[in-house]
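Entry 14. Structure prediction run on the chain below.
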Amino acid sequence: MRRQEFQCKERAVWEDLLSTVKIGHIAFRRGENLEILPYNFSYLHEHLYFHCSPQTGLAGAVGSPAKFLAYHEVAWIPSTWRHPHLACPATTYFTSLTLSGRLLAVESLKEKAEALEQFMRKYQPDQAYTPLSDKRYHGPLSALFVLKLKVESPVLKRKMGQHLTPQQREKVYDGLRTRALLGDRVVAQAMAESNDESDPQGWVESLNPAQLTNLVKLISKSYWAEGRSLSEQANLNQSSQLLLAKCDSQKLLAFARVTWVTPRVAYLADVIVSPEARGKGLGKALVARVMNHPRLRKTPKVILHTKDAQSFYTQFGFREKHGDENSFMERQLH
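Output returned:
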């Protein structure tokens, strides 16, 4: 029996899944045999696109009914977070999408080029290649077999602790924040959104695309990140085990992130408050929340660099180690 609380109807969630998951699995019949194959794919204009050699793979399945699955494992939740001895609470949080349809061959060179251009944007976002609209691709595109599957009646499942009581979910939140592996903060944010437990004051642990764009507009004007691009900031955020931001809807008011250099040393970076929110104690509230993070509280040393905020950080236990133009500061547990 399917648990109804895991069903999700949000189009933005499944579109994001199709735009980011690199491999999906497609099942179809070839004669009397049922085949399930992993495939790269692109999503464009309500269709999934696949490509292969005319002699292999999906080429023999044109016109056949097919079923597609895209799956993203979000986090492993150990049993000990909910019970000290029993194994049964152990689980995986994930997002999955299944859909059914009929595989159709793509004949138009223009449609093939558009589908594969979308494919390249997904798998090679630096776009360091000649666009597929170039006439030099006409021959290869003519020989390439491309199929499409229309996205109809998608079934989206998002397991993020919806079946737990608030008290049980709080234990999972604590576990994620204490473990603080890459991705755990994103899981905590997704859990909060899925269970209507988002912070009423606007504190978030992961940024949506609009918030990320607003962060880059702000931080790229700072002395330490002047000219930083959207992709550069996205990569930095993704590699940070701790991220905290204060947002007013899509507007970003304050931001900070932390990366663990070693298990015993953490680096606090990109602490910034938007100009209109300064002078209201938001910077102090931001750093206080960051320093109170469960894993950071147990980290022996936290370091940072600053050019002009030495006196601000001393109130959190940081001490200046090098007094050059860009001061190195650290806070050590005693």
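Residues 201-332 form a domain with the Aminopeptidase fold (CATH 3.40.630.30).
Filed with the rest of this week's runs.
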